[in-house]
Design brief:
Mean pLDDT of chain B: 80
Low-confidence stretches of chain B: none
Strand order of the largest sheet of chain A: 6-7-8-3-9-10
Structural class of chain A: alpha/beta
Number of helices of chain A: 7
Oligomer: heterodimer
Number of helices of chain B: 23
Shape of chain B: elongated
Largest interface: A-B, 40 and 36 residues
Strand content of chain A: 25-35%
Strand content of chain B: 15-25%
Helix content of chain B: 40-55%
Distance between the termini of chain A: 22 Å
Structural class of chain B: alpha+beta
């Protein structure tokens, strides 16, 4: 069953020199529980596609449905609520709130969603990612790998149906990156989450079920991992 | 399920707690707290000081208000005062001959009713010319208390009998101090204080006699205001005059008015500076939270949730800062009041609740209004910022920001000064100055870039940095300049005021006046002064006379009552004038128009304020009556007189040829050190007709008030310096983040910390020095306007500040810049990169 569908989704912006096509119309279908990697060179349009699929931005033409809800029919508030209910995020630059501790960063999405026991859930998840003893540390007191583990714990706290990851190991050295990858895939399996990951690391992409290759805003290749 | 309100508060509180403890909100909290502290301490202090000064000053009147009348007033007016809750007393004064043992002397008879004086106290002694003790009683019926001066003129001792008109009085005390002794040396003969109930028995109050009926009132300000509203419309402006302490007769009033204006102006500047710090800090506060908002929105936070979280956050921060500011402000004010009270020797009265309201309102206005636009922008941050870091809410019109901020600053000014007009003038001046400063800043930045190109590598890097951020830098320079300028302005004005006061009342300012000196004794007295080594002014002749006509048109007081209503009648003096003649311009007088008398030409020199009031200029012909003779002379020059000096001053000075030969008495003032006071009797024994007037008390009172007003001014200055410093810190911090990225790149590329530290420091030195220079220019212009338009002082240039301004700007800004960027210099590059990621 498709959890995300893109129908002729394109994105352009107006510039002084006229219209600039960032993403040409793309049709796409991602099944529930599937792990999909979006690969391509820098500036190819991968992150733009991710933003459209996650409802962070709206397409210029076409539409995206998430769990059969057309994102273009929702206003910004409704899209935020949908993200809170169904979507988790992991970013290359971790994007933790600097003035909150590790525990509080993880609790935040659950609190925004009005969950009843955010602190217990967050503690449990941080223990699961190996940071049970770093609950009260601020982001700047953690290493890059540790910060990304906090971000992973935060992404899973609402038990989202879909997880979007934007270059999740891009800022980490290879050793740390590998550990973070393992953790990510392990949790993904455990929670049965659909994973949509932007990366230009082909080795990481190969761990996914399917690889979509974008070049100059066009979807040029779709292949299933070996 | 969405979270309830407590959960939002919890998130807000958590953010606030961490940010406060991590020092991220220090500048914002300090800026709001300082604004509150400044307003509270200043308004509490100035209200209490003013209350104290008014109370002291009221002693010069012996009341809060005095109604002077040429005839007795309706008893109903006094009854009405009582109904309004005011206390009242009567004081009737007139000059009369006093007889003792067949000798006579002119005295100032003062008949007072019970309760006199309503403010201040009389002092009496048992022998003349000694320091007396305070008394709260009055002479009983048949008794008189007599001023020391009369003991010199009549063969008197305690227990002697004097005759005043038809009545006899026994002298029971020497009157050494009257709070209402006044300052008009021409009318002061020695006082004879008698009970009001004995006045009729003297038989001296007849129709046509020159008697002043004074009605004294004292009470709560609100009661007085109510009574004033009722009374003033009923007064006859020719024969009756309502007087308060600030009505100009008191030697204190000029000092007080200036001090009050200075305090108001300086505190206004302090509040504006603190508000500027809040504005800069608020912008940075919101910018810091751009990412947090984008993350929250990405993670499912709705706009409403984000709005509530940050509004509550801001309110909590504001509340916290206001409470801190109130506590600090109260403590500061209590300390200063304690110091001032102990120096003044009396308690200052308590203040009303309005300073607390004013301070809280200032804190709320500052924090909320200046944060409004940044907060609106914050709410509009799109979630997409998590992927595209360059996105912010730049679509929100910036003009909105200027309108809100400008409106708030103006609102604060009005709230504080309670004057739409003063605020509008300052505000418009400020805006104009801002644009000028902005233009000059850009020019300077461009010029320094060219100069920097010739210099070494650190300098080149510094100048390149300045040029690259020229827009930000000129804004930054604007706030640096404003802060330095206001600081210099307050410093310079304070020095000016203090110096001005100091000059008026040097330590050896004359403390006695001698009047009624006979013409034939002038030489003897001059010799006596020289022989006894007493510093005195010249002896000036005095001739009583009246101004009758200007250019042959009779003046108002020279015509009949019916003719007064004729609008063509010119304004005169309404009273007799003390005329003098002199061959040269008296010291402390400055010619403002015309020239001094040439040879024996007939002519008169007119004091400038009088010339303005009666609308006469050079060449106008004035007709005077002296005794039975009338004569007309042209106005040859206009003179400015410093009325605050303790020397005989005159409205009209004639060329000797115009008046010489007319019988006159002479006046002089001199300084006698307090330890020589006991010699007075001996010194003036040979001049029995002359009267001595002791103004030492008044000088001491003025000095003490001025001394403590100076303290108040210094206190205001310290607060303004703090506020200015905070603006600088906030501004330097705000630019830190822009610099961070650039420094990281340069460090990564291998630039040594030493080179970077120098480059940053040099950039700040140049910025600071330029800001200091601009500030000095702006300060000179502002102070010129203030001196000539607000404080009525002569304009001066402040050369010291031309060196001091740039130096202070460079050192403060460089120091602050170095302190805040030092963190970046000592951090490892890897950490910095991570911080920026």
């Amino acid at each position: 069953m498709a959890i995300i569908q893109a129908h002729s989704v394109s994105r352009h912006v107006e510039t002084n020199a006229g219209q600039l096509q960032i993403l040409s119309p793309i049709d796409l279908r991602i099944e529930k529980g599937e792990a999909v990697a979006i690969v391509g060179a820098s500036g190819s349009g991968k992150s733009t596609l991710l933003a459209l699929l996650a409802g962070l931005d709206l397409p210029s033409t076409g539409h995206v449905t998430v769990d059969n809800v057309n994102l273009s029919d929702l206003d910004e508030e409704e899209r935020a609520i949908l993200r809170g209910d169904k979507i988790g995020f992991i970013f290359q630059s971790f994007l933790l709130i600097q003035s909150l501790t590790a525990l509080e960063n993880v609790m935040l999405p659950a609190e925004l969603a009005g969950a009843s026991n955010p602190e217990e859930q967050a503690t449990e998840l941080l223990q699961k990612v190996g940071l049970g003893d770093r609950l009260d540390h601020y982001p700047n007191q953690l290493s890059g790998g540790e910060q990304q583990r906090v971000a992973i714990a935060r992404a899973f706290i609402g038990q989202p149906a879909i997880l979007f990851a934007d270059e999740p190991t891009g800022n980490l050295d290879s050793g740390t990156g590998a550990k973070v990858e393992d953790l990510l895939f392990e949790l993904n399996r455990e929670f049965g989450t659909t994973l949509v990951m932007v990366t230009h690391d082909e080795r990481l992409a190969a761990k996914c079920d399917r690889i979509l290759k974008i070049d100059s805003g066009k979807l040029v290749e779709q292949k299933h991992a070996a | 399920m969405r979270p309830n309100r407590w959960q939002w508060t919890k998130i807000s509180w958590r953010l606030l707690r961490h940010e406060l403890s991590r020092g991220e909100l220090t500048v914002m909290a300090a800026a709001v707290a300082l604004a509150v502290t400044a307003v509270l301490s200043l308004s509490l202090f100035s209200e209490r000081l003013q209350g104290g000064l008014m109370a002291r000053s009221a002693e010069f009147l012996a009341a809060d208000r005095v109604l002077r009348s040429r005839s007795e007033i309706d008893d109903g007016w006094l009854e009405r005062a009582e109904e309004e809750g005011l206390r009242s007393a009567r004081r009737t004064t007139f000059n009369s001959m006093v007889f003792a043992e067949e000798q006579l002397a002119l005295a100032d008879i003062k008949a007072v009713s019970d309760g006199f004086p309503l403010r201040g106290a009389l002092e009496v002694a048992d022998e003349p010319f000694v320091t007396g003790v305070v008394t709260h009683s009055l002479p009983s019926s048949g008794e008189a208390w007599v001023h020391s001066g009369l003991f010199q003129q009549l063969p008197l001792s305690l227990g002697s009998t004097i005759e005043v008109g038809d009545a006899e009085f026994v002298v029971t005390k020497v009157l050494t101090h009257e709070p209402d002794a006044g300052f008009n040396v021409f009318t002061d003969s020695p006082t004879v204080l008698i009970p009001y109930t004995d006045l009729a028995a003297t038989g001296l109050i007849q129709p046509g006699s020159r008697v002043s009926f004074h009605y004294l009132f004292a009470g709560e300000p609100a009661d007085i205001a109510r009574y004033e509203n009722w009374l003033l419309p009923q007064l006859d402006d020719v024969t009756q005059r309502w007087q308060g302490i600030q009505d100009g007769d008191s030697p204190l009033s000029a000092a007080l008015t200036r001090a009050e204006r200075f305090m108001l102006l300086a505190s206004l500047l302090g509040v504006v500076l603190a508000a500027t710090a809040v504005a800069v800090a608020a912008q940075r506060y919101c910018q810091r939270n751009y990412d947090a908002v984008a993350i929250m929105k990405t993670l499912g936070g709705t706009r409403g949730q984000v709005r509530r979280i940050f509004t509550v956050h801001l309110l909590l921060l504001t509340g916290f800062s206001i409470v801190a500011g109130l506590l600090l402000g109260y403590a500061l004010q209590a300390g200063v009041v304690w110091y001032v009270s102990s120096a003044l020797g009396y308690e200052l009265p308590a203040a009303s609740g309005s300073p607390w309201f004013l301070a809280t309102a200032t804190g709320l206005l500052c924090a909320l209004m200046f944060s409004l636009y940044p907060l609106l922008r914050l709410m509009r941050i799109p979630p997409l910022r998590v992927l595209r870091r360059e996105l912010d809410a730049s679509d929100l019109a910036r003009s909105l920001h200027w309108i809100i901020s400008g409106g708030t600053v103006y609102g604060l000014m009005v709230l504080y000064s309670r004057s739409w007009l003063l605020s509008a003038a300052l505000f418009a001046g400020g805006i104009l100055a801002m644009f000028l400063l902005l233009g000059i800043s850009r020019l300077f930045i461009r010029a320094s870039r060219q100069a920097g190109m010739q210099a070494g590598s650190s300098w080149r890097l510094a100048m390149a940095g300045m040029q690259r951020r020229s827009r930000e830098n000129s804004l930054q320079m604007l706030s640096f300049s404003t802060a330095v300028m206001l600081f210099l302005l307050v410093l310079a004005l304070r020095n000016e005021l203090l110096e001005d006061w100091q000059n008026q009342l040097p330590d050896d300012a004359p403390n006695y006046f001698v009047v009624n000196v006979a013409g034939e004794q002038v030489d003897a007295m001059t010799q006596m002064f020289e022989r006894e080594n007493i510093r005195s002014t010249d002896l000036y002749p005095i001739i009583p006379g009246r101004l009758m006509a200007i250019n042959d048109t009779p003046v108002r007081d020279a015509v009949s009552k019916e003719e007064r209503d004729d609008t063509n009648v010119r304004e005169g003096f309404g009273r007799e004038l003390q005329l003098t003649w002199r061959r040269d311009l008296p010291p402390e007088n400055v010619l403002t128009a015309g020239r001094w008398f040439d040879g024996d030409e007939p002519g008169v020199s007119v004091e400038s304020q009088v010339a303005e009031r009666i609308r006469v200029g050079l060449g106008d012909r004035l007709t005077f009556r002296v005794g039975a003779d009338e004569f007309t002379v042209p106005v040859v020059n206009i003179r400015e007189v410093d009325w605050n000096t303790m020397q005989p001053n005159f409205y009209m000075i004639f060329n000797p040829s115009s008046l010489e030969g007319v019988p006159a008495t002479y006046i002089s003032s001199f300084y006698l050190p307090p330890e020589r006071r006991s010699e007075l009797y001996q010194l003036f024994r040979d001049f029995p007709q002359a009267s001595l007037i002791d103004v030492d008390d008044i000088i001491q009172q003025v000095r003490s008030v001025i001394g403590h007003v100076s303290m108040a001014i210094t206190f205001v200055m310290v607060l303004v310096i703090l506020a200015g410093g905070l603006v600088l810190v906030a501004q330097v911090q705000a630019t830190l983040e822009e610099r961070e990225q650039e420094l990281v790149i340069l460090r990564t590329l291998g630039a040594r910390s030493g080179l970077l530290a120098k480059a940053v420091t040099y950039e700040f030195i140049v910025l600071g020095a330029l800001a200091g220079l601009i500030a000095t220019i702006a300060m000179e212009l502002t102070i010129f306007i203030l001196q000539t338009q607000v404080f009525n002082m002569p304009a001066t240039l402040h050369w010291r500040f031309w060196v001091f301004g740039p130096l202070i700007g460079a050192s403060i800004v460089a120091l602050l810049g170095w302190m805040t960027t030092r963190r970046l210099m000592i951090q490892r590059t890897a950490e910095l990169i991570r911080g920026l990621a």
